[in-house]
Amino acid sequence: MRTITFLLQKEFRQIRRNKTILPIIFVLPIIQLLILVHATTFEIKNVNLCIVDMDMSNTSQQLINKLEGSKFFEITSTTFSYNEAEKQLANNNADMLVYIPQNFARNLIKQKTATVQFIPNAINSNFATLAFSYASNVVMNFNKSITVDWAAHISPQPIKQIETKARYWYNPELNYKWYMYPGIMVILISMIGIFLTGLNLVREKEIGTSEQLNVTPIKKYQFIISKLLPFLIIGLFELILATVLGKIVYGVPLLGNIWVLVGFTFIYLLVVLGIGLFISTLAETQQQMMFIAFFVVIVFLLLSGIFTPTESMPVWVQKFNLINPLSYFMKVIRMIMLKGASFKNLINEFISLSIYAVAILGLAIFRYRKTA
Amino acid sequence: MIKINQISKNYETVKALKNVSFTVDENELFGLIGSDGAGKTTLFRILTTLLLSNEGSATLNNINVKNDYKKVREIIGYMPGKFSLYQDLSVEENLNFFASVFNTTIEENYDLIADIYKQIEPFKTRIAGKLSGGMKQKLALSCALIHKPKILILDEPTTGVDAVSRMEFWQMLKRLQTKGITILVSTPYMDEAEMCDRVALIQNGEILSIDTPKGITNSFPYKLHAISADNKYQLIKDLRNHDNARTVFPFGNSVHFTTANNNLNEEELYNYLMTNNHTNISIIETTPNIEDCFMELMKPSRG
């Protein structure tokens, strides 16, 4: 125990003295949480429209006003040439073309039907789908309003309509930031666990100090504890920091029990520390460590369901996610924070992560004892 | 006391050590002399329990390095060839750290390290990474001594250190010896062999010879001459072409020369060199040193 105290003292002294790592521990979470949340949001705003109004009627003008009135669209150009409009799209000056053909109003009255064409730039298919669905919504509303208008001319009784109203549970304002914020927290905690631990361990190997320690009576388990514990503490500290920051800046709620969150983070940190330790036994230099860790983290992260729910991913990805610790924690942290899930709701994840922690730490320590 | 018995170590296909055996007596200053890649570090890593040998055994103060490695670690001080203390901790913090992992304090064993540590004490708050080479080496030695080891194992402690610091370092080792510590030290510098009680010459993982420095030089079987002239390069070439030449090695400002029949006719050689247009020729019979002996011993393996 005395030895571990001395080892820990040494670790914290080195971390405190490290002019690169120390700022990263404090600045990285703030930057990641405050900036990345905006960058990863899927809400689209300010879709630039190029309007080609060949009809120039009252009705077409009404439709254009409706589009302009929507907070999603901004009309950046109007033209009467379809070719010119296409150019705008090609130059990225416009995100979507709105083509209103000649006789739009006349067809609407005489044939009771008319067409309007939307052409979104679909390089980002997600963006295009959303822009188009926003636009269709506007058109539907417009449709309804003209029907009601005309009907009013015929009969004084207003037409009865079925209206669907959606109430969104757990995230009533469909605030994408609330969804992303816990995801970014997962990235943060994983980075601390895998990168900092691994690099710290490999550095001792690279400089040769681990060999010097090997000729002292320090036991391997004491050394490993002294290497993992500081980052476990830092990881938990970052969790608290991030939770508070999210509440203050974005109002991200913490509906669940804080101790359930801390408990899960603790187990998850054991998993990522184990991964960091394991990778460090594969690497001889910090450069190798960096590359292997980067590869592992990117794969785990993109498959973890940080952007899209894993249920909509191919079956093999869902199978893969059984060994992806990020995907468990991603799910758990969102459920605790946004849905107020209790420990009972998460018992399966708890068992999985615990088994994972024991397995990966066991494997890493076994390998570490053999290689160092 | 260190006993090494028939130790062999293979790295895949390379045989790093072949049946190495020798004994270092209690309180002896023993030198292991050999060029780079001879197997010195491999042997030291086996003795310090960092590496397992494929064959053979070794004991330090009668403790087996394989079976009782934990006990061995308590009685040895090891200073690896590469400076491997914490570069981001200060001199004092490094020393304190190594003292505490051995369950001791600087004060407790201060007398042992005093005359080494005093030289770096003025810089005790400086971080180790910012020390000069000589000071780093003194710090490393202090750290290796802080737990009062009975056996000190030093791997090329003087490599990359200036001549004055090297001399100082050997004097420090001599003083440590008077305190009853058994010291095993390796070096690629043959002139340092003279400072040891006994030396072992190692080449390609094999021990070539073990003796006192005097014993090794006395066993040199040939008459040795130091020959010098103005154009040293041409001198070496011409000596090699001489009919009676056996070995020709440059040494300092002169060339060390032995003859095939071990009977040098100085006048004949002088004239031979004169006819080859050498100037300022001097031929003196000289006593062999460790390096001559080492070159001699290495000869068969070089073919």
Write up this protein.
The complex is a heterodimer of chains A (372) and B (303). Chain A is of the alpha/beta class. Chain A has two domains: 237 residues, no CATH class; 108 residues, abc type-2 transporter like fold. Helices cover 67% and strands 6% of the residues of chain A. In chain A, strands 2-1-3-4 form a four-stranded mixed sheet, sandwiched between helices. In chain A, strand 1, helix 3 and strand 2 form a beta-alpha-beta unit. Chain A starts with a helix and ends with a helix. In chain A, 33% of the residues are buried. Chain B has two domains: 216 residues, P-loop containing nucleotide triphosphate hydrolases (Rossmann fold, 3-Layer(aba) Sandwich); 67 residues, 2-Layer Sandwich (Alpha-Beta Plaits), CATH 3.30.70. In chain B, helix 3 packs parallel to helix 5 and helix 4 packs antiparallel against helix 5. The longest helix of chain B is centred in the middle third of the chain and has 16 residues. Chain B starts with a strand and ends with a helix. The chains are: A alpha/beta (372), B alpha/beta (303). At the A-B interface, helix 1 and helix 8 of A face helix 2 and helix 3 of B.
Topology, please?
The complex is a heterodimer of chains A (372) and B (303).
Chain A lengths: L1 H16 L3 H19 L7 E7 L4 H12 L3 E7 L2 H9 L5 E5 L3 H7 L6 E4 L4 H30 L21 H32 L1 H6 L5 H31 L7 H25 L3 H18 L11 H6 L4 H15 L7 H25 L1
Parallel strand pairs in A: 1-2, 1-3
Antiparallel strand pairs in A: 3-4
Helix pairs in contact in A: 1-9, 2-7, 2-9, 3-6, 7-9, 7-10, 7-11, 7-13, 9-10, 10-11, 10-13, 10-14, 13-14
Chain B lengths: L1 E10 L2 E11 L4 E5 L6 H8 L7 E6 L2 E2 L4 H7 E4 L11 H11 L8 H11 L12 H13 L5 E4 L8 H16 L3 E6 L10 E6 L2 E6 L1 H6 L5 E5 L3 H10 L3 E7 L2 E6 L6 H10 L6 E5 L3 H13 L1
Parallel strand pairs in B: 3-8, 3-9, 6-7, 7-8
Antiparallel strand pairs in B: 1-2, 1-4, 4-5, 9-10, 11-13, 11-14, 12-13
